[in-house]
Amino acid sequence: MTMQPSSPRVGNPEFLLEAKDLKVTFRAPGGKKLHAVDTITLGVRPRETVGLVGESGSGKSTVALTLMRAHEPEGGQIIFDGQDVTHLTYKELMPVRRRLQMVFQDPYSSLDPRWSIRRVIGEPLRAHKYGSRAKINERVAQLLQQVGLPPDAADRVPSQFSGGQRQRIAVARALALEPKALIADEPVSSLDVSIQAQIINLLRDLQERLGIALLVIAHDLALVHQISDRIIVMYLGEPVEEGPADEVVGKPQHPYTVALLSATPVPEPGGGSKRIVLTGEPPSPIYRPTGCRFHPRCPIARDRCKTEKPPLKEIGPNRRVSCFYAGEMPPPRDLWALENVPLPPGVERAPRPFAVGSSRAN
Amino acid sequence: MSTTVTTPAAKPPALGLRLPKKLATGSTQLDIGIVLLTLVVLALVMQELFVTSAMLDGNLSKRLRWSGDGVGILGTDQLGRDLFYRVLAGFPWSLGISGVAVVMVATIGTFVGLIGAWYTGWVRTVVLLGVSAIIAMPFLVLALVVIALIGRGFWPLSLTMGGIAWPAISRVIYAESRGLLTREYVLAARLFGVSQWSILFGHVLPGLRPTILVMAAFYFATLLIIESALSFLGLGAPLNAPSWGNMLSDSRQYLVNAPWMMFVPAGAICASVIGLNLVGDGVAELSRRRARAVEV
Amino acid sequence: MTAIQEAAATGRSVATADTILAVKDVVVEFPRPRQNVGFRAVNGVTFNLNRGETLGLVGESGSGKSMTALSLLGIVPAPGKIVEGSISLRGRRIDNLGLKEMRTIRGKDIGMVFQDPMTGLNPVRSVGAQLTESVMRHQNVTRAEAEEIAFRALDQVSIPSPRDRLKAFPHELSGGLRQRVMISLALINHPEVIIADEATTALDATIQAQILDLFRLRLTKATMIIITHDMGVAAEICDRIAVMYAGRIVETGTIAEVLSNPRHPYTVGLLAAVPRFDIRRPKLVPIPGVPPTAEDIIRGCAFKSRCKFAQAKCDERPPLTHLGGRLASCWFPRGA
Question: What is the structure's pLDDT at A40?
Answer without folding.
Answer: 94
